[in-house]
Amino acid sequence: MKKIFSMFLAMSAMATMAFAAQQTVDCGSTVTIKATPKAGYHFVKWNDDNTNATRQIENITANQTFVATFAPNTNTKYTVNHYLQNITNDLYPETAEYTDNLTGTTDEATEAEAKDLIGFTAQSFLQGTIAGDESTTINIYYTRNSYNLTWSTNGNALSGNYTKGSIKYGAEIIAPATPTKAGYVFAGWTPAVSSTMPAANTTYTATWEASAHTAYIVKHYQENLNDDEYTEVLSENMEGTTGTNTAAAAQEYDGFTAQSFSQTTIAADGSTVISIYYNRNRYTITFKDGPKTITKYENLKFGATFDLPANPASYEDEDAVYNFSSWTPAVSTTVSGNATYTAQFTATPKYTISAIATPDGVGTVIGGGKYVSGSQITLTAQCDDSCYEFKGWSDGETSASREVTVSGNATFTAIFEKKTYTITIESANEAQGTVSFE
């Protein structure tokens, strides 16, 4: 009779019985046994330390048990997917942003790690068990961070549909319309504006360059004539660079002197005003008659008026009569500077009117002398000798008293003649006697 033996095969994963099989064979038979590891595992050895996964058992003469030992692979693959939250909503894309292909020991826990991603915060997640068939997948989701976006101008209010407030990382940034600030020119944002939201609270600050065309005003005031107040006579619209000094300049006005003034810093808002005041100059007006001062006006304001003094009196000497004719230089009664006016006289020469009587000693003529041209004088002939009588003038005039208009030197001679008488002698009787002159 044949002996029949039982062959017992056992598979062990590190001494843990996972599967068993038996087969009855004839004595002396040969049996082939095979150890096949599952996915994620590998064969180690049989319990008799044979390391051939497939082997023959020959000349079987007894019941035998063979135990195959397996061990988990240490390079079993698993996948870690990283999903980043969308910008426009709170959902996640179907395709992972990053995929990590890792390996580990079958049936042990995965060792997935969240990435340190700028602008994202990883959500909590659970590790999984590494499947031998390498199907294990760990999904890690990242919430997109939001950061505060502000704009600082130190200028006028911003305008336009621009991005501000709590903004998701990576969202598009729309800058405001170009800002404005009185007296300055926009020079850009600091830091430079990113096209998308950075991973930090961000403030963009407007930078400015001082405008070279900032307006300011220079006003000019002249002292009034009749009081000590001032009246604006000119307003100049000027330009300069914000924050620098004004470049105001005094004007040249006849009869005025500018007071000192200070430049000032040009205000950005165009409110700077420089006021320049001009005092009226004071002058002295003198009227002279020769070396003698007859009238003096002192401390007269430029533009003031004054009264002419009375004309100096006429005077004469033996040769002429001097009558006031004018002031030199010509007088302007409106003050425009220091001035000295000197009286001018017109000399009217005197002519000699000689009045004589002839013959000498018998008469006189009253009225002769020196007279200016045009004078009307009276010449009167007087007889001083009773034996003489006035007969007339040498120019034929017969009136003893006459009017003469002086036009030059002249001699007027009064002619006197002796009186004559007739003596008559008669004889009362010529027969009786005669008469005669001896």
Secondary structure layout plus pairing:
Elements: E1 4-13, E2 16-26, E3 31-34, E4 41-46, E5 54-57, E6 64-72, E7 76-84, E8 98-104, E9 120-122, E10 137-144, E11 146-152, E12 165-168, E13 184-190, E14 202-210, E15 214-223, E16 230-240, E17 256-258, E18 273-280, E19 282-289, E20 292-301, E21 315-316, E22 320-328, E23 339-358, E24 363-366, E25 369-372, E26 376-383, E27 388-393, E28 401-405, E29 410-418
Parallel strand pairs: 1-6, 7-10, 11-14, 15-18, 19-23, 23-29
Antiparallel strand pairs: 1-2, 3-5, 4-6, 7-8, 9-10, 11-12, 13-14, 15-16, 17-18, 19-20, 21-22, 22-23, 23-25, 24-26, 26-28, 27-29
Please tell me about this protein's structure.
Residues about 15-20 have low confidence and may be disordered. The termini are far apart. The protein has no helices and 29 strands. Helices cover about 0% and strands about 50% of the residues. With about 450 residues, the chain is mainly beta. The strands form 7 sheets. Strands 19, 20, 21, 22, 23, 25, 27 and 29 form an 8-stranded mixed beta sheet that branches. A 4-stranded mixed beta sheet has the order 2-1-6-4, with no helix packed on it. A 4-stranded mixed beta sheet has the order 8-7-10-9, with no helix packed on it. The relative contact order is 0.06.
